[in-house]
Amino acid sequence: MIFLKTEDEIELMRAANQLVAQTLAEVGKAIRPGVTTAQLDQIADEFIRDHGALPTFKGFPNPYGGPFPGSICTSVNEVVVHGVPSAETVLKDGDIISVDCGTLLNGYNGDSCYTFQVGEVSDEVKLLLKTTKEALYKGIETAIAGHRIGDIGYAVQSHCEAQGYGVVREFVGHGIGKDMHEDPQVPNYGRRGQGKQLKNGLCIAIEPMIAMGTHEVYMMPDRWTIKTRDGKVAAHFEHTIAIHHGKPDILSSFEEIERIEASKY
Ligand code: MG
Ligand code: MG
């Protein structure tokens, strides 16, 4: 079921998503060669709780196995999504890490993801990050009242496939509000003019998951970690937006994250 949000609810959603943005920036400050993904998880968990919210991912139920053990997903290199934070996963120079974060604040959810570089990465990888982020914003630009879900997917898919990248099919964006995952689904592929119509008050997470090679993925025995079939790296950028006064209103933010990235590299 689709729940359209009131003006007040959109502002509550903005608050939850701004906390996600701040959390990702805090994590970003700590990302460097030698740090473990368990340390990053600890930083995020404390920051979220210190700000009166809950990390939505912690204990998130899994249809295939046990609940998610971390407060963020930390997906390194060929891990596309749902990487589990671990004291054994040590970041090294040239890695990329997608940090996906969700918060529940005053009854509403925030959800955003950013793929960080660790130290110096190759030009090939930089182009993947740049293209995936561009695809996210191209998807957002099309999210205006009267357009359809397929318009978003088409914008993301065509931008990434033009570079020869694989658009992951198994995981998609989603409606978001009091629940982390509400209707409708928001695929990163699609046809223009197809699918549900976008209306004022609709809040959705748009989240391209884009692989350097094949779009095919598989699940690791931990029943969470999703990797690319060919072992090539993948990027993941996500914003939560509202359709507000007919136009896309980005409720999360990369501003602080990018300021920190710029100061490091
Ligand atoms: Mg997310
Ligand atoms: Mg999401």
Could you walk me through the main structural features you see in this protein, from its secondary elements to its overall organization?
By secondary structure, this protein is of the alpha+beta class. It has a single domain (7-264), classed as Creatinase/methionine aminopeptidase superfamily (Creatine Amidinohydrolase). The protein has helices at residues 7-30, 37-50, 123-141, 149-161, 255-264, and strands spanning 54-55, 72-76, 79-81, 96-105, 108-117, 166-167, 173-175, 182-186, 203-206, 209-211, 217-219, 226-228, 234-236, 239-244, 247-250. A five-stranded antiparallel beta sheet has the order 8-7-9-14-15. Strands 1, 2, 4 and 5 form a four-stranded antiparallel beta sheet that branches. Helix 1 (7-30) packs antiparallel against helix 2 (37-50) and helix 3 (123-141) runs antiparallel to helix 4. The radius of gyration is 17 Å and the shape is globular. Bound molecules: magnesium ion (MG) (2 copies). Residues 100, 102, 111, 113, 207, 238 line the site of one magnesium ion.
